[in-house]
Amino acid sequence: MASTIRVRAVASGDVTEVQALVQHPMDSGFVKDAQGNLIPPHHIEVVDFQHAGKTVFTALWGPAVAKDPYIKFNFKGGQKGDDISVSWVDNKGESDSLTAKIS
Amino acid sequence: MPKQNRPDRTRRLILQSALAGLVTGCGLAWWPKGARAADAALWPKDAFTQKTEADAIKALYGKAAEASDQVKLDAPEIAENGAVVPIAVSSALPNVTSISIMVSENPFPLAASYKIPPGTSAMVANRLKMAKTSKVVALVESDGKIYSATKEVKVTVGGCGG
After folding, report:
1. ipTM greater than 0.90
2. Residues of B in contact with A36 (CB under 8 A)
3. Of the candidates A62, A87, A95, which has its C-beta nearest B112's C-beta?
4. What pLDDT does residue A2 have?
5. Any idea what the CATH number is for the domain that residue B78 is in?
6. Residue B35: band (very low, low, confident or very high) from pLDDT cuts 50, 70, 90
């Protein structure tokens, strides 16, 4: 199965810009389905970004983060060709991870 | 002979169990550090389930925030679709360790919180859901103090359903 994560990390000088998209319903728990039943909350809680064995960014998300979340941040010290690892876990214990190269 | 064997066997048993204990002990101590996965235990449930912005700030940081023009909050004046509101926060403050975003009128105001380790810029862009027109509050933790910036975002179509 294709990964739920898409990540693009671009090093420019000393700074690496990371952009990531995760496929996830991010159900808030306040939306009703066609039958009028509440769709229970189903959202990512934690996203961890690692470079060189070190966490460079941690996202803590509530149900108010939009569906198929997008995130952008910068960190120092990344080099072209380095690995960047992304992993997430949601409130149902589902998870996914992906390692990509910095370009 | 049996008399000599017994202590030997006992010793071997002790050694074996000690070794097994060492191995499992190591495994347990090692796993969290070696795991390259997001840890659900980091999620501050208490802060994410508070119903007011002030309570959420207190649950998250244990102190109140003070307004600062050093916190930059980029959000649209009008969001046509409350389901996807692009919001970015950045700051020139020193030693920023976390950035959080609250939507005051949402059922649970705390929308997202980010941990910024040393070496990572005090900048984040994301997309949030807004139930209706609301204040959006950006919080930046710098040198252990909490600074905030606030902006009103008008929502034409709410993004929390119902």
Report:
1. yes
2. none
3. A62
4. 80
5. 2.60.40.2470
6. very low
